[in-house]
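Support case: user asked for a sample of complex input and structure output to validate their parser. Sending the pair below.
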Amino acid sequence: MAERAPLPRTVRIIAPLVVALAMLALWQGVVTWWALPPWLVPSPRAVLDTAIADRALLWSSLMVTVTIALAAFALAIVVGTTIALAFAQSRWIEASFFPYAILLQVTPIVAIAPLIIIWVRDTRVALVLCATVVALFPVIANTTLGLRSVDPGLRDLFRLQRATRWQVLWRLKVPSALPYFFGGLRIASGLALIGAVVAEFVAGTGGQGAGLAYQILMAGIQLNVPRLFAALLLIAAAGVALFVVVDAVSRIALAQWHESELDEAPR
Amino acid sequence: MNTARVPIVVARDVAKTYASGTEALAPVSLTIGQGEFVTLLGPSGCGKTTLLHLIAGLDAPTRGSLRWWGEGAPPHGDDRQRIGYVFQAPTLLPWARVRANVRLPLDLAHVARDKADAAVDSALAKVGLGAFARAFPRELSGGMRMRVSIARARVMRPSLLLLDEPFGALDEFSRHHLDDELTAWWRAEPLTVAFVTHSIAEAVYLSTRILVMAARPGRIIADVPIAAPFPRGNAFRASLAFAQQCVALSELVAQASQPVDG
């Protein structure tokens, strides 16, 4: 579709790396030049040193946050897809329940989280539920849209062949919906991580089960800005890693046949 | 010519008004006899596709009735009474290979895989795509995709074939080729065809009978037999008879396109 020729793979990898190195150099330069104190702006070097020094703490926190995000992501996929399939089976079901899916989406998670945390005894389960609420909507909305966006000609063809409801669903609607579904997953993966972090901020769980959000909270209070930065970077890295994995899975699932995977469709 | 034929489809005063109030088709009556190649010819908006949908049983008429092989409903499950449909666009599953696309109607009817595959191979060979069974639709040209679509209709061995401007998007060379292949198929088997087009030359070249349609509301204004013998080739396209038929039909279509008063 796009008129622009795609850039070679090497360029697409190297160019952002060059930008990253330039930014790091600039950052280090600014901090060194104006001799900024580490509690205000730590140098990349100081962040790296802290990350290495606190690696045990940060790693275990990262694992806590990532586990919550992954559990929420998985739950959002299962629940979201089930709801979308129910919507696709009946306009009545969709008309009756879709407004509530939107309600779930527009209500800020920080407003819902305290309730969930009060109601659910196990904090980790509560955090997973909060993150699921955040990640759920794109899965529902995209999959529902995908299940609906069947080529009308193909629908007529299936009708002409007297295909059963089941055949239409599995042979036509589900394959048609796959690109939309994966588009929803790309968004949901990032939202699951955001949901996990935000919910943890609200819950403020410390101790053994402390996640990265708690480390950021504590580091902020203690003005341990290098650790704050290190935790921040870890969250960002986790988000990127999650996106890359989802992207790769979606490519493997679709690349063989679907056009959206061929011409770099908008995500 | 068509009086002695066994009627395959009989439409009696069928009309279609959409929920929006648009009168797509004023009451029309037609009979399509066994072995005929009937073309619905007319400008866009004259209800050709609507009428074809009614004949296919894809849509129900607002008024009037249709009979297929004397029955009040389109046939189902009978080997000798099957309706094939070729859409305007190739309408292929983009995620399925050519072979799976052609096999789709058989899969939906739960035909055993080995039997279905044999039928698919034979249908693909007939449209000249035997070597492309493992290709994806996007790897094929527009003409080849249309051939896949025709192979998919063929695999069901229909006795009534409905085609809705199937070659409209193709270049003239592909179009002539596919016209000839369609005629060859129709002649080789006991097949009845209803074909929709807005190309006068294509209609004259293919048909045994042309129903000229007019718009607003859609209706049939003329029933023109084309008596030229088959096979018709370029010699027919270059003949005086062909040109005369085309001119006569152009005039009819031009009349049909005039705004309707009152």
